[in-house]
Amino acid sequence: MSLQTGTPAPDFTLFSSDKEKVTLSELKGQPVVLLFFPLAFTSVCTAELCSVRDSLDWYNNVEAKVFGISVDSLQTLARFKEDQQLNFTLLSDFNKEASRAYGSIYEEFGFNMKGVSKRSAFVIDGEGIIRYAEVLENAGEQPDFNQIRAVLEGLH
What we know:
Layout: E1 13-16, E2 21-23, E3 32-36, H1 43-54, H2 56-61, E4 65-70, H3 74-84, E5 89-92, H4 97-101, E6 105-106, E7 116-117, E8 120-124, E9 130-135, H5 145-154
Parallel strand pairs: 3-4, 4-5
Antiparallel strand pairs: 1-2, 1-5, 3-8, 6-7, 8-9
């Protein structure tokens, strides 16, 4: 199932690497960027999230809240966030519910791993409507951050 722009974003409640409960529907009123990624500590995921870290001021200037989401445990995400000095929230979708709701899951991934998040990006406006959706089949690719920025700029 792929989510379309213009449709309501599926709600979820996940725990952050700081063990805080985050519910999407409670973030209404501001744009939200969801970045699903396969696995912490892998090269492409690290490059992607570090590029967001390095440009977080831009996201803050457009009042967008950024979340990285993977099926890694809270403890793994906490270590990854610390090691990479990530300055935004990482959420654990250990039970794979959000990844499935967003059509962002590999049922089978490398090394016979099952249920790993697909690399994907969603921009959700302040009303909870999806304004950008990109789900990548190739885990070696990164989302189109120029498009993400353009969509966020268009929300103002």
